Structure formats: C-alpha cells, structure tokens
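Researcher: I'm preparing a figure for a lab meeting and need a structural model of a single chain. I don't have an experimental structure, so a prediction will have to do for now. The sequence is pasted below. Please return the structure as tokens so I can convert it later.
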Amino acid sequence: MICEKCAGEIETIKCNTCNGEILPLGDYCYLCGAALNKKIEDEEESFDLSNRILCSDGTCIGVVENGVCKLCGKPYIPEE
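Model: Understood. Here is the structure written out token by token.
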C-alpha cells in the first residue's frame, strides 16, 4: 500500500476473514471486525512466569534479576 502523503510503501497484512488488505493497527480487522492472527508465540515462550524469582523481602512484590530485586533494590537472600 502506498502512503497518500509521502508516497512511501506502508506495511499491510491480509485479513483471513474478509481478505481485505489492511494496516496492522490492532488485534481486529477494521473492515469486518474479525480477530487477526498475530504471531506472538515467540513472546509467550520468553515470558515464562515459572522461572522468576520473587523478592526475599516479605513485603515487596518485586522480581529478582541479577541477584537484586528490580523493585526495591534489596539483594536476594535464598531461603534456607
């Protein structure tokens, strides 16, 4: 698709329901309203909550990264 203002090429996707050529502006086709199938499988694999380490401070809700809580900054102390 060509931009009307700058004449540059604009990335478009094809709706599987109405076969319309649309801009990737959201999760739904703006022509027919059908849900678009976006490839987010890679993001889901990297976002695994079972591998996170919670802050050892009982009042903090932060997650430990590189030995330090990302929220409060306290060093991680493993339970014995």
